[in-house]
Design goal:
The chain has 172 residues and is mainly β. The protein has helices at 75-80, 142-151; strands at 11-14, 24-27, 32-37, 41-46, 49-50, 58-67, 105-111, 114-122, 132-134, 138-140, 157-161. It has a single domain, classed as L,D-transpeptidase catalytic domain-like. A hairpin with a 3-residue loop joins strand 3 (32-37) and strand 4.
Length: 172
């Protein structure tokens, strides 16, 4: 079983911010996601983020959520990793389940009414929490994405703070 550093355990903290309650703030350099609550509070989650060249930043919205989502890697990922072709969009993706890279829940991120192809989702790879290893998605432990999924509403704002040590494409 993978040991998770205690600093990445879910916790409620003081978090003064000008963002309104319900907003999600991804602190890419620190590997934390904050779900802003009323009264200067937030729930903090440890996360895994995009590796160099795949990270992103900007403001967007949670367009919708799914329980036990299918995983359909983008065509660009299938080109980089041909072994993923059985799970391509054309082939219908990978069915839900405990080994699906999307995990137990997923939040789908849109900007300007368009799918960014970025997601906040669970991961079967608990050891990736606190690291920059993904293809751009924000990973959470299964129990954390289930918790977050229950609290976040469609249309919630998400703000992704860039990591100055990486060159990041700006989403907006």
């Amino acid at each position: 079983m993978t040991q998770i550093d205690e600093r990445f355990w879910r916790t409620d903290i003081d978090y003064p911010t000008s963002e309104k309650p319900g907003t999600l703030i991804v602190d890419t350099p620190a590997k934390y996601l904050y779900h802003v609550k009323p009264g200067g509070r937030a729930t903090r989650y440890g996360i895994g983020v995009g590796r160099e060249g795949f990270a992103w930043s900007g403001r967007a919205v949670v367009a919708y959520k799914r329980e036990w989502p299918r995983w359909t890697p983008p065509d660009s990922m299938v080109l980089r990793q041909p072994e993923l072709k059985p799970y391509s969009i054309a082939n219908g993706g990978m069915p839900p389940g405990p080994n699906n890279p999307m995990g137990a829940r997923a939040l789908y991120i849109h900007q300007g009414g368009r799918d960014t192809l970025y997601r906040l989702h669970g991961t079967p790879e608990a050891g990736s929490i606190g690291k920059a290893v993904s293809s751009g998605c924000i990973r959470l432990l299964h129990q954390d994405i289930i918790h977050l999924h229950g609290d976040v509403r469609d249309g919630s704002t998400i703000v992704v703070i860039p990591d100055p040590s990486m060159s990041l494409p700006e989403m907006g």
